[in-house]
Amino acid sequence: MTNGSPPAALGIRPQPLTRRPLTRRPGTLPRSRRTLLAMTAVAAAAMSANPALAKKRPSPGFEPVMPVMAPARPANGSIFNAAAGYAALYEGNRARSVGDTLTILLLESTTAAKTVGSKSQKSGGASITPPTAGPLDFLNPDALKASSESTFNGSGNAQQTSTLASTLSVTIAEVRPNGTALVRGEKRMLLSQGDEWVQFSGIVRLIDIDQDNRVPSNRVADARIEYSGKGALQRASKQGWLGQFFNMISPF
Q1: Domains: count for the chain
Q2: Are 228 and 199 in contact (CB under 8 A)?
Q3: Interior CA angle at 22 toward 19 and 27, to 5°?
Q4: Nearest to 100 by CA among 177, 200, 223, 184
Q5: 54 — pLDDT class (breaks 50, 70, 90)
Q6: Domain assignment of residue 212, yes or no
Q7: What is the DSSP letter of 37?
Q8: Which among 175, 201, 204 is positioned nearest to 62, based on CA atoms?
């Protein structure tokens, strides 16, 4: 046996190289599917963290309030019983107790405009005059001049207009000693192309209620008005979830 002898001379037959098939662990997904699932999970988390992208539902807390039933008094032989319902002549049928209904005239109109402008300018310069004689007389005076200038001009304009005109019946949820009442209510509409709802709550003065049990919304303190909906028309007017995801992560 000598060094450098081929394997055939030693009776050893070389084995051909074979590639082992790639195997995947049971229960694992391909890389492309894992990437797609990760992107879907990130988009779902981003949409759930943003209330504007979440699925809309009517807010709780606007349910009607039932009137408080006074305890029945024992019969005393009298025809008049104030607990059975009493309204003075000067009060009429105006809403004044818990559970009474009144109508809110939604007359909301808001216009906002804002204009911002900014402008700045700055300039500077420096120059050195070299001596005409001596070891530095070879310097060029034009090469020793420097100047700088910066200019900025920016402007912005924003304008928004919103209008809401409707009527909504609400109930008195609480009557306070200072002559005010907390009212709340909602209206839900099931349409052929989706659902819509209007919710309202606020504090009204009982003296502002007219003879028809109506109060304009501009006389309601701490008013909370919500008009929204869901359905095919709302979905068609919004961008898809994948486009919203890329808009959130896009740096441009």
Answers
A1: 1
A2: no
A3: 165
A4: 184
A5: very low
A6: yes
A7: H
A8: 201
Residues in the chain: 252
Residue 46 has pLDDT above 50, yes or no: yes
Cα–Cα distance between 67 and 85 in angstroms, integer?
12
Instruction: Find the domain containing 231 and state its range.
Output: 94-112+163-249
Q: State whether residue 35 is helix, strand or coil.
A: helix
Burial call 200-228: b when 16+ CB within 10 Å, e when fewer: bbbebebeebeeebebebeebeebebeee
pTM, to two decimals: 0.54
Is residue 127, in this structure, part of any structural domain at all? no
Sheet bearing 194-205, strands edge to edge: 214-216, 101-127, 145-175, 180-191, 194-205, 221-231
- Residues 85-136 have pLDDT tens digits of 666 666 678 888 888 999 999 988 888 888 888 888 888 877 777 767 667 6
SS3 of 238, please? coil
pLDDT tens for residues 2-29? 455 555 555 555 555 555 555 555 555 5
Q: Is residue 205 part of a domain?
A: yes
Structure tokens at 27: 């229960």
Distance in angstroms (rounded) separating the CA atoms of residues 52 and 47: 8
| Per-position b or e across 22-44, b if 16+ CB within 10 A of its CB | eeeeeeeeeeeeeeeeeeeeebe
With respect to residue 150, please indicate whether it lies within any of the assigned structural domains. no
The per-residue b/e assignment along 98-113, b for 16 or more CB within 10 angstroms, e otherwise, is: bebebbbbbebeeeee
Max CA separation in the chain (angstroms): 136
Instruction: Provide CB contacts within 8 A for 166, sequence distance 6+.
Output: 106, 198
CA distance 240 to 103: 39
